[in-house]
Write a structure and sequence with these properties.
The complex is a heterodimer of chains A (410) and B (370).
Chain A lengths: L4 H5 L18 H4 L4 H12 L13 H7 L8 H47 L25 H13 L3 H23 L15 H23 L2 H7 L3 H10 L1 H13 L1 H10 L13 H7 L21 H11 L17 H4 L3 H5 L29 H8 L21
Helix pairs in contact in A: 5-7, 5-12, 6-7, 7-8, 8-9, 8-10, 10-11, 11-12
Chain B lengths: L9 H4 L20 E2 L8 E6 L7 E7 L3 E7 L5 E8 L4 E6 L5 E6 L3 E6 L4 E7 L4 E8 L4 E7 L3 E5 L8 E4 L4 E7 L2 E6 L3 E6 L5 E5 L8 E8 L5 E8 L3 E6 L5 H4 L1 E4 L2 E3 L7 E3 L2 E6 L6 E5 L4 E5 L4 E5 L7 E6 L5 E6 L17 E6 L11
Antiparallel strand pairs in B: 1-30, 2-3, 3-4, 4-5, 6-7, 7-8, 8-9, 10-11, 11-12, 12-13, 14-15, 15-16, 16-17, 18-19, 19-20, 20-21, 22-23, 24-25, 25-26, 26-27, 28-29, 29-30
Classes of the chains: A mainly alpha (410), B mainly beta (370).
């Protein structure tokens, strides 16, 4: 089979259907949706001589291949060229494909959320409910689940202790919290996906409003004398969330699932199109030159794509929200305050500095949900080791694994 | 025989139907159903009819006035109050034992009690760290126990003789509702958790189901297939939606579906609706059709196999907070009382709470053709 020259250049229009060989990346070329003219060509095929190539107003790739300097001799050098660059280009193609479909899904999701939230607000539905935009996902952070019975019990308890005012205050506080969250979600759009990201660490983020409420109320509750009701009403979530924070790796373990839903992941992809969040593969070489700083620290999270320098306001805010308990937009400083084991390895310096040598590769290996941010040196092949140690990556030789700890210079 | 102390309207009401509903704007009983005498003084949280093993029909209701009342429902519709017992906190769950001699009641006072109706004695059989929301009696081939689900995130099983649970299972979140049809049990928790248990030999978790609904779980009921084996459950949420989940069925994902209910269209804008919570659900024991009650003050009857709505009631002036069928499906009981769906501002302690009984033998027959 002749090697498709367009594919090698990264612009084969036929993709999977191309009659020429696409070396290296079997699915990569196919991921690109073929242009409309190809649909036409496919149906036309029946009406034409079967032996001829697909005929349309698109110039057939095979004719080009014959006329190019590389035409004719399909020797081993050709094959090696194809294969060595194939991975680089193949990978380059895929993020674009994911961008288009992921964006659409995400757009739909966001629209769905806005609609849901508007209906929620206007319909008189019970406010204090957990909410999941997609049924398969855990509830969005910022909404606490309180059943009417629990609320009513609180009312009765406060009534008997003659402390109705504190009940009213706490209810009012809950309502304003809810309203704020609703308003946040109503204005959610592509550049403001911060509200979705807390979805990932829903446990952690919930801790912030819930505990805050619980603790400030604790004194009031305590004074009401019904200490038992404290546990009931302060959402009993404090014990529940302690494990959540320490278990945040597992939260980030949900990232792959989330990544599988291209929606949330494209928080990264919007600003950095080269990074398919959740796609465990190397991004194109072009992105490496400025994406690498601050990348390694985020390893498994896949947010590795976001250096502070690149983080424009949406993304910076997104990161902060994801790691900062939802309140601070302080860039990357906040994660330090949380005991996320996923991020405890790199120091805060990584987040703060943007002058990291470009020898650091982007390590968006999402599969490392067990928080292997760095590969031990002995697991790297010689070639990979060389790559990590060189100043820049060579196309076609970019390692798929994260770099070893030793090679990271902060 | 007035066991209900100060609130007895015992002599005056009887089961008269005609005198009610005649006032101009009185919608407390638009369906002209039989009103239960001496209804509780505060909102009714749960209702339960006696099992088939007991001759006659006895209804128990737990209320937010901390009491549990029992009536005998006679065949002519008359309700005769029989007994009551008091908890230290509002009663959220009631259930009968299989032989009809005991009633188990679960309360916000973190205990569950076993009430022996013959002797009118109630002893505590369960203890939790937080209010107990659900109580169910389990009769297995080799054991019998009481299952209690609580807001302390545990599901405990009690042999009524010992003060320690025979088994305690951890829940991911607070238990909001549960249902048991041997050998299956389903528990719905906060944050949209749904867990299915199997009860043979000893209770064990089968799996966690992904809820098809986006909002808080409110009530759950198991349904049976035509061989009277449980094969799925219905889940109601605060969002006026019900999801049917089929389990142990080959194409369960395909057969599971959700539908909207207990919503009203506003007169002015065509788009927006009022959305009400589904407060309770019950399956007809014979026909397998579903009755649901909601905060909109209506009850609906549904045929899940024919995917059809059989009946919608007129709205009552209060939400309907609980419902249940008697053992042979002839009587449908529903309680009209405030369910806190709009918070404390709409709570009127002076408002009367009702329990209505309706003849359910005919209306719940499934549509033909399926």
């Amino acid at each position: 089979m002749t090697v498709c020259q367009f594919f090698l250049q990264g612009r084969c229009r036929f993709g999977d259907r191309c009659w020429n060989e696409h070396p290296g990346a079997r699915g990569a070329g196919g991921a690109r949706p073929p242009p409309a003219s190809q649909q036409l060509s496919a149906s036309n095929r029946r009406g034409w001589n079967a032996s001829s190539q697909r005929y349309s107003n698109v110039i057939q790739p095979s004719s080009f291949s014959r006329s190019t300097p590389w035409g004719g001799s399909r020797g081993p050098d050709q094959a090696s060229f194809g294969s060595s660059t194939g991975s680089g280009f193949g990978a380059a193609q895929r993020p674009f494909a994911s961008l288009s479909s992921g964006d659409q899904d995400e757009q739909k999701l966001l629209e769905g959320i806005v609609k849901d939230v508007e209906v929620w607000e206007s319909s008189g539905q019970w406010m204090f409910s957990a909410y999941s935009p997609l049924k398969t996902q855990p509830p969005v952070a910022g909404f606490t689940d309180i059943s009417p019975e629990e609320l009513r019990l609180e009312y009765h308890n406060f009534l008997t202790s003659n402390n109705l005012q504190s009940y009213l205050n706490s209810v009012q506080q809950l309502i304003t919290q809810w309203k704020n969250r609703i308003n946040q979600l109503k204005t959610i759009n592509k550049s403001n996906r911060v509200a979705l990201l807390p979805n990932l660490n829903n446990g952690v983020n919930q801790a912030a409003p819930a505990l805050g409420f619980g603790s400030t109320q604790a004194r009031m509750f305590g004074s009401s004398g019904s200490s038992k009701s404290v546990q009931n009403f302060s959402f009993k979530t404090s014990p529940g969330f302690a494990p959540a924070t320490s278990g945040s790796p597992s939260v980030f373990g949900t990232l792959p699932a989330l990544g599988a839903v291209p929606s949330a992941g494209s928080a990264v992809s919007a600003s950095t199109p080269a990074f398919g969040f959740g796609k465990p593969q190397i991004t194109s070489a072009a992105s490496f030159s400025f994406k690498t700083p601050a990348a390694s620290g985020f390893g498994s999270a896949g947010f590795s794509a976001a250096p502070t320098s690149l983080a424009g306001s949406p993304f910076g805010a997104a990161m902060a929200l994801a790691f900062g308990g939802g309140t601070s937009v302080a860039g990357f400083g906040s994660p330090g305050s949380q005991s996320h084991t996923a991020f405890s390895k790199p120091s805060n310096n990584i987040f703060g500095s943007s002058s990291i040598p470009t020898s650091l590769p982007v390590s968006n290996v999402i599969s490392a949900t067990d928080k292997v941010l760095f590969t031990p040196k002995d697991q790297l092949t010689q070639e990979e080791l060389e790559q990590f140690q060189s100043k820049k990556f060579t196309l076609g030789k970019i390692p798929l694994k994260p770099p070893p700890v030793e090679l990271i210079h902060i | 025989m007035s066991l209900f102390g100060t609130t007895s309207k015992f002599g005056s009401n009887g089961s008269s139907v005609g005198t009610f509903g005649s006032a101009a704007a009185d919608h407390h009983n638009p369906m002209k159903d039989i009103e239960v005498t001496s209804s509780p003084d505060d909102s009714i949280g749960c209702l339960s009819f006696s099992p088939a093993s007991l001759p006659g029909n006895f209804l128990v209701a737990g209320s937010w006035a901390n009491d549990v009342r029992c009536w005998e429902v006679q065949d002519n519709g008359q309700t005769v109050p029989k007994a009551q017992h008091i908890h230290a906190g509002p009663v959220l769950g009631v259930c009968w034992s299989d032989d009809g001699s005991k009633v188990f009641t679960a309360s916000c006072d973190k205990t569950a009690k076993m009430w022996d109706l013959n002797s009118n004695l109630a002893i505590q059989i369960a203890q939790h760290d937080a209010p107990i929301k659900t109580v169910h009696w389990i009769k297995a081939s080799n054991y019998r126990c009481v299952m209690t689900g609580s807001w302390d995130r545990t599901l405990k099983f009690w042999d009524t003789r010992s003060s320690n649970p025979v088994m305690a299972l951890q829940l991911p979140e607070r238990c909001y509702c549960a249902d048991v049809v041997y050998p299956m049990a389903v528990v719905a928790t906060a944050r949209r958790g749904l867990i299915v248990y199997q009860l043979e030999n000893q209770p064990s978790e089968v799996r966690r189901v992904e809820s098809s609904l986006k909002f808080q779980n409110r009530c759950v009921a198991i349904f049976k297939d035509k061989h009277h084996k449980p094969n799925g459950f219905a889940l109601g949420s605060i969002e006026g939606k019900i999801a049917f989940h089929y389990l142990n069925v080959p194409n369960s994902v395909k057969d599971s579906f959700t539908f909207k209910c207990h919503r009203s269209n506003r007169a002015n804008s065509s788009g927006s609706q009022d959305i009400y919570a589904v407060n309770g659900m019950a399956f007809h024991p014979i026909h397998g059709t579903l009755a649901t009650v909601g905060s909109d003050g209506r009850f609906n009857f549904w045929d899940k196999d024919g995917r059809a709505k059989l009946k919608t009631s007129e709205p009552l002036d209060q939400p309907i907070s609980a419902c249940c069928f008697n053992h042979n499906g002839n009587i449908f009981a529903y309680a009209s009382s405030y369910d806190w769906s709009k918070g404390h501002e709409f709570y009127n302690p002076k408002r009367k709470n009702y329990i209505f009984l309706r003849n359910a033998a005919e209306e719940l027959k499934p549509r033909n053709g399926k």
